[in-house]
Design a protein that fits this description.
The protein is an alpha/beta fold and 305 residues long. It has six helices and ten strands, in the order H-E-E-E-E-H-E-E-H-E-H-E-E-H-E-H. An eight-stranded mixed β-sheet has the order 1-2-5-3-7-8-9-10, sandwiched between helices. A two-stranded antiparallel ribbon has the order 4-6. The longest helix has 33 residues, at 2-34.
């Protein structure tokens, strides 16, 4: 009996120890859960193929014609920081009319790297790496100059002051300030950033040339394009504004639509003028690439400024 009593005694001690261990484990697990940071809500899908967005028709006067222009836009989840979200403007290239950069276009089979558009916007809106900043993002349509196609007027209409784009941007920026796109306090319009590809890349340059009187443009990202008035192989870069913002170029060595030497002219003029400039060269063509993302990408460049 004594032997059995000793055995049962050991069993009770073991059970007590196990019980205490279980209780301790529950406290540890509970404590761990308390310290798990809450996942931030995202505007875009995990793979970056689609982002939510708002859409508004921005009416403006182009000469004597009251003209509509579609604008898609989105702000990051959460409360805007003091002073408002940094504000980025994406200018698409020559595309079918009203092409939406916030969603994937499977029927295009990633032509011109189009699948990277929404991924870039995801980085801007969601900051998935957790580094740098989040950006309110606007993507106005270019004018539907070709009826079924759209492209910017920056290197098409001369003088530019006669263009519908000039009229549009003067109205568009005022409408953001006046609350037509939600409370203006959520946007930091003293920290604007422009990026675009092809026709939209030229138009990004236009922001520095025509719309930077108050030095509100802090950085540009130009993909497969060059100076505001250049077009394809035709390119002459004049003297640059003294407040030209830091500019990074992404260009393919096999870009036969916008030859790389035209980008080099703009880059060289920036460097010679004492401006900040950088370039990312890849072996592809006229396209968005994975180099527009991550550590070599557009958001990373903007975060520096």
């Amino acid at each position: 009996m004594k032997h059995h009593g000793t055995l049962f005694g050991v069993g009770r001690q073991a059970m007590d120890a196990i019980g205490k261990a279980l209780v301790l484990s529950l406290f540890v697990i509970a404590g761990s859960l308390i310290h798990i940071p809450k996942a931030e809500a995202a505007r875009c899908s995990a793979d970056g193929s689609n982002c939510t967005y708002k859409q508004r028709t921005n009416w403006y006067w182009c000469g004597l014609v009251y003209t509509p222009r579609t604008v898609r836009y989105q702000v990051p989840e959460g409360t805007a920081p003091s002073g408002g979200w940094r504000t980025a403007f994406f200018y698409n290239g020559t595309t079918p009319t009203s092409m939406n950069p916030f969603i994937k276009h499977p029927l295009l089979f990633n032509a011109f790297g189009v699948d990277n558009m929404a991924k870039i916007l995801k980085e801007m809106l969601d900051n998935p790496s957790g580094t740098g900043h989040k950006y309110a993002t606007f993507a106005p349509n270019p004018p539907a100059t070709a009826v079924v196609g759209q492209f910017w007027h920056t290197n098409v209409i001369f003088p530019y002051s006669f263009s519908c784009d000039n009229s549009f941007f003067n109205d568009f920026f005022k409408e953001i300030k006046n609350g037509s796109y939600g409370s203006s306090s959520q946007y930091n319009l003293n920290k604007r950033y422009a990026f675009g590809i092809s026709s939209g890349g030229y138009n990004s340059s236009r922001m520095a040339v025509t719309f930077n009187g108050s030095s509100v443009w802090k950085a540009l990202g130009i993909i497969s394009a060059s100076y505001a008035t250049c077009a394809g192989p035709l390119c002459s870069v004049p003297s640059l504004p003294s407040n030209h913002p830091p500019t990074k170029f992404w260009h393919g060595t096999n870009d036969f639509i916008v030859p790389m030497f035209t980008m080099e002219k703009y880059y060289d003029k920036l460097i010679a003028s004492g401006k900040v400039a950088a370039k990312q060269i890849h072996g592809g063509g006229h396209e968005l690439t994975p180099q527009n993302l991550g550590s070599t990408g557009i958001k990373n460049w903007f975060d520096k400024y």
